[in-house]
């Protein structure tokens, strides 16, 4: 979010008192589609400090007009990926469940999220995640906990000097590693 846009939305009257209400200013900023939360505090003697928490993109989705950035709510964000650095995985579709899961991975397993380059639907009810060029198959209802099981499997394979060509999470309580 461009700080100049926040200033434009504030519309601060320079003749107003620092003690005047800030609710209207807060509401104008909160209406921006990138804003998740906004807080305005006073710093005496005469300054307002604005704290903005943004909706971060979790995936880029291809469209007829190029890529659109989406957040974990499944909302397209007004971010031009050609003008701003957007380092997120490519998702084949703006599927709300997949975008929510990507948001959870981004928040709770950032190391795993950084390795994700692509998420796509494969067979009906299945997803393929690409981690550092390694395909990982999963059911569409895969959980964050299930995705984090991958770390243990990868560590075990590395310890045994084995390299997987694909990991498969579709089977209950198992991770299938297809080896080279």
Structural class: alpha+beta
| Secondary structure tally: strands | 11
Question: How would you sum up the global shape?
Answer: elongated
Point out poorly predicted stretches.
none
What key attributes describe this structure?
180 residues; alpha+beta; 6-stranded mixed beta sheet
Walkthrough of the structure:
The protein has 180 residues and is an alpha+beta fold. The chain has helices spanning 3-10, 23-30, 96-108, 110-115, 144-159; strands spanning 35-43, 47-54, 59-63, 66-70, 76-77, 90-91, 116-121, 126-131, 134-139, 164-168, 176-179. It has a 6-stranded mixed beta sheet. A 3-stranded antiparallel beta sheet has the order 3-4-5, with no helix packed on it. The chain is elongated, with a radius of gyration of 21 Å.
């Amino acid at each position: 979010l461009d700080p100049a846009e926040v200033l434009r939305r504030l519309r601060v009257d320079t003749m107003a008192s620092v003690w005047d209400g800030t609710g209207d200013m807060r509401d104008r900023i909160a209406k921006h589609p990138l804003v998740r939360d906004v807080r305005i505090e006073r710093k005496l003697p005469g300054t307002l400090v604005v704290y903005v928490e943004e909706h971060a993109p979790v995936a880029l989705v291809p469209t007829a007009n190029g890529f659109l950035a989406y957040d974990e709510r499944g909302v397209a964000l007004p971010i031009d990926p050609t003008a701003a650095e957007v380092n997120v995985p490519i998702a084949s579709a703006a599927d709300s469940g997949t975008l929510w899961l990507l948001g959870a991975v981004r928040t709770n397993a950032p190391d795993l999220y950084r390795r994700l380059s692509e998420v796509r639907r494969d067979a009906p009810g299945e997803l393929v995640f690409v981690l550092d060029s390694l395909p990982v198959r999963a059911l569409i209802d895969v959980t964050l906990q299930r995705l984090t099981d991958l770390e243990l499997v990868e560590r075990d394979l590395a310890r045994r000097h084995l390299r997987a060509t694909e990991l498969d999470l579709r089977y209950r309580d198992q991770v299938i590693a297809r080896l080279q």
